Amino acid sequence: MLQAKKIRQPTPVSIPEQFSYLQGFRDYLISHSTSIHTRNAYLSDLIQCAQLRKVKLPQWQSEDIQTVLLALTEQGKSPRSLARYLSALRQFFKFLRETQLRNDNPLSSIKAPKQGRPLPKDLSAQEVEALILAPDIHTALGLRDRTMLEVLYACGLRVSELIGLHTQMLNLEQGFVRIKGKGNKERLVPLGETAIMWLKTYLLEGRPQLYKTATDALFLTQHGGIMSRQNFWYAIKRYALIAGIQQELSPHVLRHAFATHLLNHGADLRVVQMLLGHADLSTTQIYTHVAQARMQQVHREFHPRG
């Protein structure tokens, strides 16, 4: 009889003797069924903070916290990291209040730093071209992958939308594809001449070789099944190596490139919003920052006085 493999738990953080008061906080977290990962994260962050002040952590006032935040910022800590330290401090001072070791909250006037939204990874038009050209179109699988990359970049689809395509969702005569996005909301997205050409070629030459059982799914595996996100993720990584692209890629990168390149060429933000299927314009606006960052990079690299 096979024995279940034991999951190895991480080793608890060792609390230095000078910070022994944190042991009570650890016991508090255990009593509240906090996971060992969370306990270790809180304790590690609190130890780092405590090492920056001579005043013992339980006696800290707002000024001590502000001083430590400034010191962490000078060390190059990101806003996301600072927010994490603040989260650990809030839990610690909450513990002190609940155990009646303090009746005030020195963090009440301190706000977490604005983290901002991380910018999507950007690919240049040349890198997109190299990625799209990477599949071997002389095989059914290579022809499928080339078509998937062409459609993904031409339409800015989510990967789930791409692998969820069915043949009846295509209107190649009028040049549109009907997409069922988040919340089952439908939208029509233009394909463009290049994507239409590759879709016609795949439907004529590639898909019949992969078709094994009755299905309307557009993109099929070598065994005739429906493509999965994982299948396509592995393909993207393989083609990135062939194309000589150094940065870590995901299938979502071509969606980002689609939006950024449209804006770089003067597309209206609301049109891009509709093409991407974003319910809120603010979600689309992040791509304007990517476009601006790209323009600044080009200016620095090529302007004679950049």
How would you summarize this macromolecular structure in one to three sentences?
54% of the residues lie in helices and 4% in strands. By secondary structure, it is mostly helical.
Outline the biggest β-sheet.
3 strands, antiparallel
Task: Give the neighbour order of strands across the main sheet.
Answer: 1-2-3
DSSP strand count: 3
- The rounded distance between the terminal residues' Cα atoms is 70 Å
Give the H and E element order. HHHHHHHEEEHHHHH
Question: What are the low-pLDDT stretches, counting only 5+ consecutive residues below 50?
Answer: 1-7, 302-306
**How many whole angstroms does the radius of gyration measure?**
26 Å
What is the number of helical segments per DSSP (H or I, 4+ residues)? 12
In words, what does this structure look like?
There is one protein chain. The protein is mainly alpha-helical and 306 residues long. Helices cover 54% and strands 4% of the residues. The protein is built from twelve helices and three strands. The protein has a three-stranded antiparallel beta sheet, with no helix packed on it. A hairpin with a 5-residue loop joins strand 2 (176-180) and strand 3 (186-190). Helix 2 crosses helix 4, helix 5 (125-133) crosses helix 9 and helix 6 (140-155) runs antiparallel to helix 8 (193-210). The protein is elongated, with a radius of gyration of 26 Å.
